[in-house]
UniProtKB/TrEMBL annotation, chains A, B:
Catalyzes the oxidation of D-2-hydroxyglutarate (D-2-HG) to alpha-ketoglutarate. Also catalyzes the oxidation of other D-2-hydroxyacids, such as D-malate (D-MAL) and D-lactate (D-LAC). Exhibits high activities towards D-2-HG and D-MAL but a very weak activity towards D-LAC. This is D-2-hydroxyglutarate dehydrogenase, mitochondrial. Residues 114-293 form the FAD-binding PCMH-type domain. Signal peptide: none annotated. SUPFAM superfamilies: FAD-binding/transporter-associated domain-like, FAD-linked oxidases, C-terminal domain. It is an enzyme of class 1 (oxidoreductase). It catalyses: (R)-lactate + 2 Fe(III)-[cytochrome c] = 2 Fe(II)-[cytochrome c] + pyruvate + 2 H(+); (R)-malate + A = oxaloacetate + AH2. GO terms for cellular component: mitochondrion. Keywords: FAD, Flavoprotein, Metal-binding, Mitochondrion, Oxidoreductase, Transit peptide, Zinc. GO terms for biological process: malate metabolic process. Transmembrane segments: none annotated. It comes from Coniochaeta pulveracea. One of its GO terms (molecular function) is metal ion binding.
Amino acid sequence: MASRSALMPVLRCVRRRMPALSARISVQSASVARRSFSSTGSTSFGRSSVCSVQYTSENYPEIQRDPRFSKVTEEHVQFFQDLLGSGSAVLESVTNDAGADDIEPCNTDWMKKYRGHCKLVLKPGSTEQVSKILKYCNDNMLAVVPQGGNTGLVGGSVPVFDEIVLNMSRMNQVRDFDEVSGVLVADAGVILEAADHYLAERGYIFPLDLGAKGSCHIGGNVACNAGGLRLLRYGSLHGNVLGIEAVLPDGTIVDDLFKLRKNNTGYDLKQLFIGSEGTIGVITGISIQCPQRPKAQNVAFFGLESFEQCQQAFRNAKSHLSEILSAFEMMDNSAHTLVQRVTGNKRPLESEYPFYCLVETSGSNSDHDSEKLQAFLEDVMEQGIVADGTLAENETQINSLWAWREGIAEALGHLGGVYKYDVSIPLKEMYQLVEDTRIRIKEAGLLGDSEEFPVIDVVGYGHMGDSNLHLNVSTRHFDKRVEKVLEPFVYQWIAERQGSISAEHGLGIAKKKYIGYTRSDNMIGLMKQIKKLYDPNGIMNPYKYI
Amino acid sequence: MASRSALMPVLRCVRRRMPALSARISVQSASVARRSFSSTGSTSFGRSSVCSVQYTSENYPEIQRDPRFSKVTEEHVQFFQDLLGSGSAVLESVTNDAGADDIEPCNTDWMKKYRGHCKLVLKPGSTEQVSKILKYCNDNMLAVVPQGGNTGLVGGSVPVFDEIVLNMSRMNQVRDFDEVSGVLVADAGVILEAADHYLAERGYIFPLDLGAKGSCHIGGNVACNAGGLRLLRYGSLHGNVLGIEAVLPDGTIVDDLFKLRKNNTGYDLKQLFIGSEGTIGVITGISIQCPQRPKAQNVAFFGLESFEQCQQAFRNAKSHLSEILSAFEMMDNSAHTLVQRVTGNKRPLESEYPFYCLVETSGSNSDHDSEKLQAFLEDVMEQGIVADGTLAENETQINSLWAWREGIAEALGHLGGVYKYDVSIPLKEMYQLVEDTRIRIKEAGLLGDSEEFPVIDVVGYGHMGDSNLHLNVSTRHFDKRVEKVLEPFVYQWIAERQGSISAEHGLGIAKKKYIGYTRSDNMIGLMKQIKKLYDPNGIMNPYKYI
């Protein structure tokens, strides 16, 4: 290992070649991106208003309302009002049309892609209330959609027909925190960012971070097994969640809020709820292992000439940065250019490159981390793996660089409809899907610069550290011809490479019928068994998942 | 942050106060400890021979053979011989008494505590064979005990009556390894140490390490959700295992060997198999995320005056060592003295202390890690948290220091029978259980220096980083009076503090009846539901678990 002084001449050279332009990038687009995930329906960012959103029942005419489910009556409403108290408890009911506007944010997703016909939203304030609600619904065959921050991408948290929405926003208290072990116990309805702020004050960090943190609920994160930006460093929720409190459709409380790291006493049933998308019960509380908040953070941003070089840079980052590598994100020039067009911000690098990578380190010692990062930079620059790059030198610059990555989804939404595919693919072929899709759409004559072409661009970005690609087809307007060219092509392509058609956003209604591209008939059969075991009446989040 | 040069005078001072005695400690006890976990029954280390081990059926007279199960007939044996081939496939059968010795290692656990009456051991060579075996057993009501390295502590991997042993040792091949992602796919019967050696050659490490690594199987590790020495750093198997291949009792193959980090397509059923102890199916293969092998490793060993100081040292270690802290182990002076008595090695510290801690760092940069460790040492020495300590300066010394921790279980076994409790307790009360137990046994007049007292000593050690205590009551011989004083006292004590009666070794037969001290009736009911769902005939590892 070379000493620090021996590295200095090289580092100066690296720095010369990497102008610190990031200071000039506004952080605005990051905060806009976060606002856009609001569940209040107030986001208008170039989109139609709530009322013009097409009903899911119209977009999916093949889905019929299950006639076994009861319709909500005044008697039902009376039961819920008696249980929860009128006012905040029952947000809206069939008996009161005056406040119909208030119910719509719970009926519609933030992308304005899915819209239900729900007439009753319940906001329980305790696990016992959730238990009584579900038991009553189960006994009376009333279908239920559990809803957290309503920030999903697959329509999982909004109703299709007249299901009752069980909104968890009133259960938003931290129950317990152990300053020595870092174990947090909290209600499901705590907003992720609020949980992280609470932890930050105590020197800890929530082991999950994602763009929707300002709106999404930690219970919803667990129900959807959210992955996010730093899975590479902190691991998955299956490893970090130590306990769950949940309610089954028959009202049984799954009281498994264990607070220690090790507990080998029987089947780890809580794992079934992680990623179950509200189909077997409602998560009301979680306990989670939180790591110490890193004292030092660094972000570097590169331009690269090929995806092969992105892979080389990733391998070098793993080797040099090892335990402090907390994110390795990739985006192509199409994605980058889009953000630039929408935000009007100056690009962080002077020239354009086919690919860009963002590398983040999180560690406990600023000097050590900088030294490791600089050794990495020196290596990738000297080997010609990276064409150009910039290093953030303070928190504002870190946020600015992240905005180029986090702002992509928002920028895409600004242009019109987006076909989004969040998929896992073995790393070496990860970007090939974007190229193959682009060719396919071009060959179908659907991509072009003028209004006659529905498709504006095909872009790729994602969490390279997790082999997780976001393939996005940006359109001027949703068009059935585009959909036909994309599906099942994309799913078949992934299945041939043993990838996953849903890396982190789940199945919901969007991917329900495509699960067979990732899971075998055996596995699907076993999953249906579990659904039937816990929810024999099928009242939990119907028409979705499997 | 002080610069490196500013720290130097203090570090020299720290070094002076910490004599590097570890070089003088023989590594012998570590290798002995590992040998002791052999499944061949060849370990005699002060113990009775296999044939004198009492049958579990005699020790647990309340357990009766389930009359629904068939007895193995010549026709059954013929089926298995036709399927597997005679010779290595069917190790021993009812029709051949000549080789009866060969079957005994599969009938008895390494502690010589549990012994079954099994007459047929099957060693399948493929997942398809496992499927055919289980389907046949299920159709013919033949009970089955899946067996890996047979290194457990709770009697989970040996039969009670005449169950057929399904030994996985022939399925021992690495199937695939991805050098970029670090994902290993391997048969369940690969020995942990062999998997780790394979990975070491490629710059990776298996994310689990434990004393029995030379014998235990990775499939068994997953089936028992093993925790081990470095869970603190690499996290649990629930987070690291990406996929599982398993066979259900009806022969269904759970083909879920996914190889990427993210896959949100339906219920994560593989999680049910992690920690299921062979009660719902047999794991035949796993895919697992392996981290990069650390380039630098350091070990420090301290003497401390109180358990309060152990906690302070742990808090300081988390703060100073953060991402490189890979183990924080605690042992009391009784445990330490015992190892010294059995091995005859010179203690690593000159004086005796009530407590000792072993701190390990694993990182990618030796200079950085040493600097962090020294800042930590400086802090705990200056604050008077640590009374004395020594730092290993090479791999031999690292192994020597670890031998003082890893050799405890072996040393205990050398003296006679040991009542072992592997439990999770909130950190601040963790050691109190040892003290309360010692008082209770003393008050019962069972502890003393001469032969008339059954108990030699009550010792405590464990994984402090995971709140995981190993309470061990060392006896001259097993004695029902001791057992009555210990149980259910220990379990009640843990239940009152919401700990776990089994932190990592599982339930097996030893803790089956005590699960209610950690799990609620609701949870136990839900677990029984799962058992019934997957194994309606109850043929898988009967008489155990729940």
